[in-house]
Amino acid sequence: MNKQLEKEIVAHSKVEALTSRTLEYLKNGFPVHFTGPTGVGKTSNAFYVAKCLERPVVVLQGHEEMTNADLLGDFNGYTKKLLVDNYIRSVVKKEETMKESFQEGVLFEAVKNGYTLIYDEFTRSKPETNNLFLSVIEERILPLYGSKHEEKWVKVHEDFSIIFTSNPAEYAGVHKTQDALMDRMITLELDYMEKNAETAILTQKTDISDEDAEKIIHFVAALRDKCLSKGKQAPGIRAAIMIATLYKQKDMTLSAEDEEFKQLCIDILLHPVHKGMEYKDKSRTLSLITQEHKKAFGGNTSGK
Ligand SMILES: Nc1ncnc2c1ncn2[C@@H]1O[C@H](COP(=O)(O)OP(=O)(O)OP(=O)(O)O)[C@@H](O)[C@H]1O
Question: Is the ipTM of this complex over 0.90?
Answer without folding.
Answer: yes
